[in-house]
Amino acid sequence: MKALIELIKGDITKIQADAIVNAANSSLLGGGGVDGAIHRAGGKQILDECIQIRNRQGKCKTGEAIVTSAGNLPATYVIHTVGPVWNGDEEKGSKLLANCYKNSLKLAEGLDIKKIAFPNISTGIYHFPKELAAKIAINEVQNFQTKKIEKIIFVCFDEENEAIYNELLKDKQ
Ligand code: ADP
Predict the structure, then answer these.
(1) Does 48 qualify as catalytic in the annotation?
(2) Domain that residue 51 falls in
(3) ipTM for the whole complex
(4) CATH number reported for the structural domain that contains residue 158 in this entry
(5) How far apart are CA 53 and CA 62, in angstroms?
(6) Which segments constitute the Macro domain (predicted)?
(7) Of 47, 143, 129, whose CA–CA distance to 94 is shortest?
(8) Ligand 1 center to residue 140 CA distance, Å?
(9) Which residues of the chain have pLDDT under 70?
(10) Count of domains in the chain?
């Protein structure tokens, strides 16, 4: 089965989904951008669980994903994945960004999640080119075979990403 894809412009912390994905950094201790917004809105519970996971298994590597509860957020879980910092190496960066989506979806599948929302991972502070990032994100999500996930939401915070996703998704749905 393939999940339905939806595009929303807005703030991912407001989304009611079984899981929202966080564009975390490898420390798992919070940061700026969407990471900061999720920790601020979700409260201390999320950070406490991130610290526990970090103490158990160390930092989260680029492209990998871990899960916590969602504290005060309307979602049930937060899946934290670490996107690549853009350094001009398109091949390596693309693979790592694809892994973020793949590993987050695999984790979600194991948690019986029906609805999951993604931010535009790596396209903020990590400076990944937005169009390339969107192509990778859409490709991974469309190729993901699932028995559980019914809906995958791309939450675009900025207008540039919203326009890119709109354009790329318009031919596909
Ligand atoms: P990264 O370090 O992976 O680049 P950022 O958080 O800086 O992470 O940016 C990733 C994307 O998240 C950017 O496109 C940014 O516009 C977006 N973003 C920032 N705040 C929010 C939010 N509250 N909800 C959804 N997306 C957000």
Answers:
(1) no
(2) 4-170
(3) 0.99
(4) 3.40.220.10
(5) 16
(6) 1-173
(7) 129
(8) 19
(9) 173
(10) 1
